[in-house]
Task: inverse folding
């Protein structure tokens, strides 16, 4: 077992103490997010090898894979807290409301 030179050891200690600061952790969070994305592409979606030849087709594969990854990530997000805004009533619905005609849940059940 060997010991590193004093300068290297001092540098190592200085870097390790810097890594405990909030500023360094904030900067590293951005880097780790990018590295995680690259790792996900390479290992999770087989982007180390293209399925086709040519730069144009490879670019299309990368773009489509990125879209798939984004959809996959969005589907894992929790639903938003606010309720979606309801649709405005159609002219036919306004007509029924003006005549106080009750709206059935489904118009298909009326013909049966």
Result:
């Amino acid at each position: 077992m060997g010991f590193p030179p004093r300068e290297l050891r001092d540098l190592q200690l200085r870097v390790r103490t810097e890594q405990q600061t909030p500023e360094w952790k904030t900067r590293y969070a951005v880097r780790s997010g990018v590295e995680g994305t690259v790792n996900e592409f390479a290992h999770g979606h087989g982007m180390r090898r293209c399925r086709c030849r040519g730069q144009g087709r490879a670019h299309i594969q990368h773009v489509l894979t990125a879209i798939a990854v984004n959809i996959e990530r969005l589907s894992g997000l929790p639903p938003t807290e606010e309720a979606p805004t309801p649709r405005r009533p159609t002219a036919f619905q306004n007509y029924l409301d003006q005549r106080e005609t009750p709206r059935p849940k489904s118009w298909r059940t009326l013909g049966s």
